Amino acid sequence: MKKVAIFGTLAAIIAGLFFIISPLIKRTQAFFIEDSIHGRYFPVVRAILEFTEEKGVAPRELAELIPEYLQSLPESKHVDRLKIMSEGENWTLTLYSEATGQHRTYQARRPNFTDKEIESSLLFYHDTWLVEGD
Q: pLDDT over 90 for what percent of the chain?
């Protein structure tokens, strides 16, 4: 009888730990995915900034950055697509991803984001990326 009670208690503890730890593991995995996205695509942001500073206007297409500012556009299994929208010196780079299990957009832009935009976002990362999603 004692063995059954001990086994039942251990099973309950293990099940409880699973329900506590599982979301933490998922959030940690999502953090590393998002960090990978931000790091891999930051050179594109830097290239857009350099292009804009030198030419006085932002590129209309990302292909304009190659090969002078970037050897090639980065690829990632975590990013479904990316696009740039520009007008004069102002630009927005948007990355689309569902790698964390939820729809996310990552944006970097010039001019910088407003405090209100940052407050309403899911995350503002490395003073560059504004993350929005479900």
A: 13
Both structure tokens of 84: 């740039």
DSSP structure class, residue 113: P
* Paired tokens of 41: 């695509």
| Tens-place pLDDT, residues 53-95 | 999 999 999 999 999 999 998 888 888 888 888 888 888 888 8
Rounded Cα–Cα distance for residues 63 and 14 (Å): 53
Does residue 81 contact residue 94 with C-beta atoms inside 8 Å?
A: no
Q: Which two tokens stand for residue 122?
A: 């899911």
DSSP code for 67: T
124: burial class by Cβ within 10 Å (0-12, 13-18, 19+)? middle
Which runs of consecutive H residues, i.e. helices, occur in 1-133? Answer: 2-55, 115-120
The predicted model scores a pTM of 0.71
